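Shall we go through a protein fold together, starting from nothing but its sequence? Label the sequence line and the structure token line clearly, so we can match residues to local backbone shapes. Would you write everything just below, so we can both look at the same thing?
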Amino acid sequence: MATDPAAAPSPETAHFIGVRHHSPACARLVARAIAALRPAYVLVEGPADMNGRLDELLLEHRLPVAVFSHYRDETRVATSWAPLCDYSPEWIALRDGRAAGAQVRFIDLPAWHPAFTERAEGAANRYADAEARYAEATARLCERFSVDSVDALWDGLFEVADDPDGLQERLDTYFDLVRGDAEADAGDRAREEYMASWVRAAVARSGGRPVLVVTGGFHRPALRALAAVGGTQWPEVPEPPEGALGGSFLVPYSFRQLDAFGGYQSGMPSPGYYQRLWESGAEAAAGELTRAVAERLRGRGIAVSTAALVAARSLAQGLALMRGHPYEARVDVLDGLAGALITDDLDRPLPWTTRGTLHAGTHPVVAEMVAACTGTAEGALHPDTPLPPLVHDVAERLARLGLDGAEGPVRLDLTEPRGLERSRVLHRLRVLGVPGFTRVSGPADSADPVFTERWEPSPKAGREAALIEAGAYGARLEEAASVLLAERAHTAGTDAGPLAGLLFDAVLCGVGPLSADLLDTLADRVGRVRELGPLGEVLATALGLWRHDRVFGVARGPVLGAVVAGAVRRALWLAEGLHGSGGGVDLGRLRALAAVRDALRYAPEAVPITREAAAEAAARIAGDPLAPQDLRGAACGLGWALGGAADPAATVRALAPDALGDWLAGLFAVAREEVGRGDGTLVDVLDDIVAAMTEDTFHAGLPALRQAFAFFPPREREAVAAHLLERRGRAGSARALLRTTADPLRLARAKALEAAVTDLLTRHGLRTPCRDEHAMGPRTSRPDEHTTGPRTPHPNEHTTGPGTAR
């Protein structure tokens, strides 16, 4: 007899199974329930917008696979994965429900819905366990059962428990405790109300036959209550708003992606182990895991004796007995192996006692144990699975350009049209994160005069999945790359750090008119950057491309010119407002003012600021007593380089000794060429200042002075040294003056220490004549000294006083 859809649903007709995602025990429970109930409907937590494509999902794929969902509008981008493996309860519900003649449906909101995307921790994973958001209850349970983690608790209660008939009751009790009286967040409430509307409608149409509802256990208590009230109409599947793009595709997945130790957020860790447990049972899985660990360790050259493995198995069995497990659980096996195989002290807890990714420096035995638990399975889609247009577009391009199946290095001449086209295709794949090629050489930045590239084939594992996921950004390769770069620009906001690399990537990808839109965005962003140093990187990159580009076709372009103009204006504004005396030398802000200098020199037509106006701004910064000393020096150098009235020699005379090095670093960073072309007055003034320093002052200032003069290349430092020798009337090699047998700072400190020791010995009457003066005869000259003329002073010796010759 047909059921009136308007009649009130009977809650008793609905059977609710709360599961933990990717739990073999829950998967077996679902299979038994379907076989026993023969339900009219099987309703599963999953994206309702996939209901029209369940035939596609239930093709003979090699699991694991995932439903990849994407959404994009002008303000928001959302992506989500709903993974399924052989032992996922959701997969068993879909597969066995269809086989039993039931109508199967996904009943959850689409992944793009704000119920997911506005959740505080995001929605990169649809099956992120709600219990992770209500950890207080699970922490109490762990304490009550004296276990380290929720995973160990779950295994003991459910996976290795020898009571399948009582599993449903234990699960209900567990999830009732986890949910407790906690108030669900807005996203969970919206999802549960939506899922309950599907339950009510299915019950109304079931003709009195059972309806099986399979959802995350956290939602089960709420769904039971919500399903008893309300309407009986099938709910509408929400559509993306007008102007938004969204959809779902199947993608291959892997156990590595499914593992909590690799960063996966939900369900069970160690999928390789649970696959064994699903196929062979708990007792056999324990032995297989032990063998897998031994094989991995021996394959890595780590000796594992049979005796050690026997000891590990005995220890695991003892731990299982002590913990009340009828069979060895995963943590029993791992703890037994760790106890038998690891003799070193570990600096952190064993990873299976917590959740999260492995840390750098993890003990190699521990790392191999975790890898054995993870497994190596990789999914594959059935050949009839529909794929997004991007996959076909990329396949056609790679074949046409001779890049598909390349086995050796790919060398590209960027000055040839075909070489440039191939380069752009490979760079677009690179920014989209599609594996298959690795760039090993080529232009590193906008000023790099390199016109060739070399790419090496790399493992293609995950290429199909990456291309399917990249299909969310567009149907054609250039469109997808451009949209992704625009998303990166949106994410960066006014943070200039990523913008320089983003700008260069946009040029390397050569994404045409879409690239112009991106550059317009960058031009707007640089006008709001808050930090001078990172802004300088953007300016230097844009200016280099505007001036020198011979390959990518953006030289002298108006859009790049807008980026340069906006960066120059912003840099001068930031520099003029920067105050603070601490911190020493900031190389980033010095490079920023050097980039401003170059823009005013080489791109005056792109910069809406005259050299005179910039020189005036530089003079204000240089004279600001609140500005950092290195910035004041850089501003003085900027004014000097632009032909302003800056007089660095006069400023140097007025500097305190402790400010000299930082100020000079700024000056030399921006106006090194002007120093080299000068008449030597500045060097003479510096020589007089340093010569007048006391020993303590000189030693305190030496590190900053060395840093400042490091801006000069060797040839220019040699010219300074030659000028000092000439000023002192000394003959000798300026090059030898620059050579030392050790770090000059160490030599200066050693000399100061020797002087202090000599003074101490003299005061106490303990000094004896030097052996060199009485016993060894005349001193033998060093190879770099002149024996027929005045000796060239050692860089750390005094000649007539503590002068620059040090």
In short: The chain has 34 helices and ten strands. The CA atoms of residues 579 and 627 lie 4 Å apart. Strands lie at 14-19, 41-47, 65-72, 77-84, 103-108, 211-216, 245-252, 410-413, 437-441, 452-457.
